[in-house]
Structures are given as C-alpha cells and as structure tokens.
C-alpha cells in the first residue's frame, strides 16, 4: 500500500500525505524529520505490513505536497493532524515523531491527548537552549540552529549549497555528509534501500521551495511556545547515544521534562541507525498500546 493524496484544510491550505503498510491496520501517524517529507516513512513499509499497521505520513506545511503556512507555530500542527484524522474517519491513532518531527509529537501529546492511543519520539530534537545541547552536534546542524535562533532568514542562504547538491547529485551529497557521522549511521546509509529512501524524501521536501524548511528551522531552534512539563499522557522515547545530528543530551532533556516519559537510550546507535535497526520494536510498542 502506497498512496499520495492531498486534502484541503479548513483554511484552504493543501495537506499532502502518503500511506504505507496495512490499509486496515492500527493507524499510526508518522512525523518526518527536518528537512524531509512523507516519503521518509516508506523505509518502514515492510515492518508496517508485518505488524498490521496503517502508517500515515503527512508533509508538514511548506514541504512536499503541503502548502506553506506563513507565521505558523509548532502548536498549530495538532489541528492539521486532527483534520486529517477526521477526513480518514479515525477517532484514535498513535503518533511517532522522528528527529525534527519530535517536537511536533510533543505538541500533539499536549494539545490532543484524547485522540492519541500512544505517543513516541525517536531521535527527537529537544530544546536547543538546554545545557550542552549543541556540544556534540554536527557542525552544519549547529550552525543552522544558531542561525535559526538569531537570523532565521539567513537559513535559506546558508542551506542553499546543500539543497542544490541534494537535488543535483544526491549520491555525492550523501557520500560527503557521511564523513562526519558515527559508524552506525555510516553503515545504515550504506544500505541501498535506506539511502535511496532518504535521498528521495530530502529531494521531495524542497518541491515547493525552501521557505518551509527555513521557517521550521527557526521554529525548532527557538523556544517552542509550550512546556514539556505540561504533557500529562505517557510518552515513549528512543535515542542513540552516538547521535551527532540530535545529540543524546537533547533526548535526556525531553525525557526529564515530560512527567510520564519512558525513555530508552541505545549505547551503540546513532541518528539514522536507531530507527533502521529498531523499527519493529518501536512500531510494535506503539501499535500495541493503541489496541
């Protein structure tokens, strides 16, 4: 099962999404990383089919098939998720936010807990002002976070060389970016199916341009506009200790702030390798709690 669709939201924007796995399975919404798109979830297709999960992956505003939303905030995303769920006639569903999708999963846990069967965050971004949050981060990511805090309009300029390289020479781009990744991530990105998936997801992210990615960089880098401490429901969190895209200290900050957080840290995993190597356990845990 793999379908690309768009719905028109109440404010007239288009929201693009794709579905993978079992059409009649337990619904699980997948929130992609940054910058990425709905296509990122395709790497989980076989696992979703095996576990009888209906995996629904939506493009956030300004990515892929979704319209740009001027002046949006992290806390606006739950309303889009509810509209999509209502369109699909889903009363309850689980969610999984990966990397840059982590803050959006947290926002949903706070804003729409009554709709959620289970909430998961994998390799998720945390508050960037936490002590030591940027210390072990890859140089490009650290630079973009600092720009997002102080001068978000510069993000499009700084990121443009990477965007152009991703569009024109995705193989070369991934080969170069792998150089400063930890060993587990390098091994993961050498797997053709994962490498191809992430290349396509990254290219698709910039289908409508770079405005969405630039705005989202600022949203994640700056204060989120809500308190993790106010999340009342249980949140499951998975993070790799070797992660350099989103250092483990960010995961620990999120886990410590959410009152009812069940966190698991993996000593030998990085950023991409965590979900690739533990997808069955992660999806299975979230699906089981939604039944």
Number of helical elements: 11
CATH superfamily: Alpha/Beta hydrolase fold, catalytic domain
CATH first level: Alpha Beta
Q: How would the global form be characterised?
A: globular
Determine the mean pLDDT.
92
Order the strands across the largest sheet as they lie in space: 1-2-4-3-5-6-7-8
Architecture (CATH level 2) name? 3-Layer(aba) Sandwich
Q: What is the CATH T-level topology?
A: Rossmann fold
Radius of gyration: 17 Å
SSE order in H/E notation?
EEEHEHEHEHHHHHHEHEH
How many individual β-strands? 8
Kindly report how far apart the N and C termini lie. Answer: 21 Å
In terms of DSSP E residues, the strand content is: 15-25%
Can you summarize the main beta sheet?
8 strands, mixed
Helix content: 40-55%
Task: Explain how this protein is built.
The protein has about 290 residues and is α/β, with parallel strands linked by helices. It has a single domain, classed as Rossmann fold (3-Layer(aba) Sandwich), CATH 3.40.50.1820. It is built from 11 helices and 8 strands. The protein has helices at about 45-50, 75-85, 100-110, 140-150, 155-170, 170-175, 185-190, 190-205, 210-220, 250-255, 270-290, and strands at about 1-10, 15-20, 25-30, 55-60, 95-100, 115-120, 235-240, 260-265. The protein has an 8-stranded mixed sheet with strand order 1-2-4-3-5-6-7-8, with helices on both faces. Helix 10 (about 250-255) links the parallel strand 7 and strand 8 (about 260-265). Helix 4 (about 140-150) crosses helix 9, helix 5 (about 155-170) packs across helix 6 (about 170-175) and helix 7 (about 185-190) packs across helix 11. The two termini are about 20 Å apart.
């Amino acid at each position: 099962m793999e379908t690309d669709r768009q719905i028109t939201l109440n404010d007239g924007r288009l929201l693009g999404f794709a579905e993978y796995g079992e059409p009649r399975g337990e619904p699980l919404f997948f929130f992609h990383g940054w910058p990425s798109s709905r296509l990122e979830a395709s790497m989980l297709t076989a696992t979703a089919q095996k576990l009888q999960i209906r995996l629904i992956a939506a493009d956030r505003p300004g990515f892929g098939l979704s319209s740009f939303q001027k002046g949006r905030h992290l806390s606006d995303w739950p309303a889009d998720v509810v509209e999509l769920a209502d369109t699909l006639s889903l009363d309850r569903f689980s969610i999984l936010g990966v990397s840059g999708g982590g803050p959006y999963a947290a926002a949903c846990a706070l804003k729409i807990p009554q709709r959620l069967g289970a909430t998961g965050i994998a390799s998720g971004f945390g508050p960037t002002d936490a002590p030591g949050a940027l210390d072990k981060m890859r140089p490009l990511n650290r630079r973009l976070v600092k720009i997002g805090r102080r001068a978000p309009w510069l993000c499009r300029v700084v990121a443009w060389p990477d965007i152009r390289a991703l569009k024109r020479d995705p193989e070369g781009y991934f080969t170069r970016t792998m150089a400063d990744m930890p060993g587990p991530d390098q091994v993961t990105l050498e797997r053709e199916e994962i490498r191809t998936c992430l290349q396509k997801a990254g290219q698709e992210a910039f289908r409508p341009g770079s405005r969405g990615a630039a705005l989202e960089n600022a949203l994640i880098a700056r204060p989120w506009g809500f308190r993790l401490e106010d999340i009342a429901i249980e949140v499951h969190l998975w993070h790799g200790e070797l992660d350099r895209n989103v250092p483990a200290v960010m995961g620990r900050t999120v886990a410590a702030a959410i009152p009812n957080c069940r966190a698991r840290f993996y000593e030998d995993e990085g950023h991409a390798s965590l979900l690739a190597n533990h997808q069955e356990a992660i999806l299975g845990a979230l699906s089981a709690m939604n039944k």
